[in-house]
Amino acid sequence: MSVISRFARTGGWLRIGGVSLGSIIRRAGTPLYVYDARIMAEQYARLRAAMPEAVSLHFAVKANPNITVARLFRELGAGAEIASAAELEACLAAGFKPRDIIYAGPGKGEEDLRLAVRHGIGSINVESARELERVIAIARKLKRRRPQGVCLRVNVEAATGEGAGEIMIGGARKFGTDSSRIAPLVNKALAARQINFLGFHCYAGTGIRDANRLVAAYEAFARWAEAFARRKKLAIQLLNFGGGLGVPYADDESELDANALGAALSGIHARLARSPNFEKARFILEPGRHLVGPAGVYVMRVTDLKVSHGRQYVITDGGIHHALLPIVMNKRYPTALVNRMGRRAAVACAIAGPLCAAADQFSREVSLPRPRVGDYVGVFNSGAYGYSAGMLAFLSHPTPAEVLALGGAAWLIRERRAPDMGVPPRRLRP
Ligand SMILES: Cc1ncc(COP(=O)(O)O)c(C=O)c1O
Fold this sequence. Notes:
There is one protein chain. The chain has about 425 residues and is of the alpha/beta class. It has two domains: about 5-35 and about 295-415, Beta Barrel (Lyase, Ornithine Decarboxylase, Chain A, domain 1), CATH 2.40.37; about 105-285, Alanine racemase (TIM Barrel), CATH 3.20.20. It is about 30% helix and about 25% strand. The protein has eleven helices and 23 strands. The strands form four sheets. Strands 4, 16, 17, 18, 19, 20, 21, 22 and 23 form a nine-stranded mixed sheet that branches. It is globular, with a radius of gyration of 23 Å. The structure holds pyridoxal-5'-phosphate. Pyridoxal-5'-phosphate binds near residues 104, 206 and 243.
C-alpha cells in the first residue's frame, strides 16, 4: 500500500492533518517539510500495541530533531533518545523528565556529557573505555547526589542475513565496545560509586524491514547478555535493543512486521525473567525512522520545465540540499503533484532541483500528470532524516520551513532561514 493513501485530499489538493496543503503553502511558502501529527501518533500507537509492557519506547530525536515533534512523542508516552547537548536541551524544553532521556553515539563531547550528567538523565550509553572514564570523572566532579545511570554499548556478533537496511553490529565497528573486550568496562562501571551500571545497549542497524533480521540481532544480543551476566553474576536492570526499524519507501516494498518483533521480545523477556540475573530487567527500543518517516512530505514548487534528449525535466525550487536521503539511500520515494492529486499520470518525468550538481535529482522517471510551472511536487516518506540530514548550506539557498498539521490546524514549527554567508573577519587573538 502506498504511503500516499494515508493522506486525504480535497479537490486536487493533498490534505495533511485535516488542512489543505494549498493553504499551508500560501502561508509558509516552499520548499517546505509538512508533517501529519496523526500519522506520527498512529505509528507510535501501532508499535506500542505490538510491544510487551516490559519494553519502553524512546523516540530517537535525531530522526526528526524538532522540539514540537519531540513534545508530541512525550505526550504520547514515549521517552527520548538523544545524540547531542542540543537534542538534550530540546527534550528538556519539550517536557521530558531527565530520567526518560537516554544518550547514545560515538565520540560524545565533554560539554555534552557534562550537561547530561548535570541533569541526571536516565542512561548514558557508553561507547568505549575512555568515554566511561570521562563519565565517571564528570560525575565525580559534579558530585551529584544520585549516581549517573550508565549502559554499555556492546558490539555483538549476529547472523542477521542479507536484506534491505544497514547492519551496524558484528566485525570491526566504530560503535560500542566489542563483546570480547567489555568485561573490564563492566568491572570499572561496577566499582565506580558515581555511576549506576544499568545494563547493555546494542543498536543493530538502520532501515531494516525484515523482522527476522532484527529478531536475529535481538536474540544474539540477549543470548550474549544472558551468558555474560551469569558468568559475572550481574543484576541487569536494562537491556536496550536499539532502533533501526525500517519503513517501506517505494510502493512495492513491504511493511515491517512489528508484531513479530513484539512476540520475539516477549519471548526473550519471559526467558530472561526466569534468570536471577534479570529479575527486574526492563527493555528499551529507540526507533526514529519508523515513528516519523511516513508522516512527512517534502514539498517543492515547479519553477521550470524542459525536455532534453527526449526526457521531460521538472525543475523545482527544492532539492537534495534539503532532502539528501532519497539519493544517498537510492530509494524510490513515492512522488506526486500534490495540487493535482487523482489526475491520471501521463508523462514520465525526471524531477531535478536548483543545485549545480548532477546528483540533484529525486527521480529519473516518475509518472506524473502533464506538469506545469507553478505545480507542486510532494516527496512522501520524508518525515525522517530529512531536514536534519540535508546539506543545508550547499549553494546558499534559504532553508526549508517545517509545518506540523493536526486536527484541521497547521503550525509553523521551524522558520525558513536565510543562508549563512559567514561573518566579516574578526581577528583571532592569541
Ligand atoms: C544509537 C541509535 N539509536 C537509534 C537510532 C535511530 O535509528 P532509526 O531511525 O533507524 O530507528 C540511531 C540512528 O542512527 C542510532 O544511532
